[in-house]
Amino acid sequence: MSEPARYVLRLYVTGLTPRSTRAIETVRTVCEGRLPGRYELEIVDVYQQPGRITEDQVFATPTLVKLEPAPLRRIIGDMTDRARLLFGLGLPLED
User: Fold this and answer.
1) 7-88: what fold?
2) Are 10 and 45 a contacting pair, CB within 8 Å?
3) Could you report the per-residue pLDDT of 16-45, keeping only the tens digit for each?
4) Is 68 left (phi over 0), alpha (psi -120 to 50) or beta?
5) pTM score above 0.85
6) C-alpha of 8 from chain center
7) Residue from 2, 3, 1, 9 nearest 79 by CA
8) How far from each other are the two terminal CA atoms of the chain, in whole angstroms?
9) Which residues pair with 10 in a beta bridge?
């Protein structure tokens, strides 16, 4: 049996606004619940690192970029909808 895929994620936020904080908390909660020990999450604050947005063609925040496993996906906007987040990551809605 093959080993489960490792997820590499990058979350772009704008400072420590309430929206950014909620996005970070929700993404971490989903990852810990569904991908324990098999994900890497990088948080990029576009205020501190504005040049990074060109790397992943980010035009709005928050944006979550799933780099691995393929295919690359972007989830833009409200991260509080857990079902939308799971769908965007390609994960089943049910455990």
Assistant:
1) Glutaredoxin (3.40.30)
2) no
3) 999 999 999 999 999 999 999 999 999 999
4) beta
5) yes
6) 9
7) 9
8) 19
9) 42, 65
Q: Which tokens belong to 89?
A: 């990551």
| Cα 65 from Cα 58, distance rounded (Å) | 9
Distance from C-alpha of 56 to C-alpha of 36, rounded to nearest angstrom: 25
How many residues does this entry show for the chain? 95
Let me know: does 86 contact 30? Beta carbons within 8 Å.
Answer: yes
**Could you say which DSSP state residue 81 is in?**
-
Q: Do 7 and 36 meet the contact criterion of CB atoms below 8 Å apart?
A: no
Q: Which residue has the tokens 């971490």?
A: 28
The upper half-sphere exposure of residue 23, i.e. CA atoms within 13 Å in the direction of its Cβ, equals 27
